[in-house]
Amino acid sequence: MSFSDINIDVFRSINNVGKEVPATEPVAVFVAEYMLYFLILALLVHWFTRRQRNRMMVIQAVIATVIAEVLGKIAGKLYSHHQPFAELPHVNKLVEHAIDNSFPSDHSIIFFSICFSFFLVRKKEWWLWIVLAILVAISRVMVGVHYPVDVATGALLGIISALIAYWIVPKLGFIKQLLGMYEKIENRVLPTKNKTENF
Question: How far is CA 153 from CA 64, 74, 124, in A?
Answer without folding.
Answer: 15, 12, 27
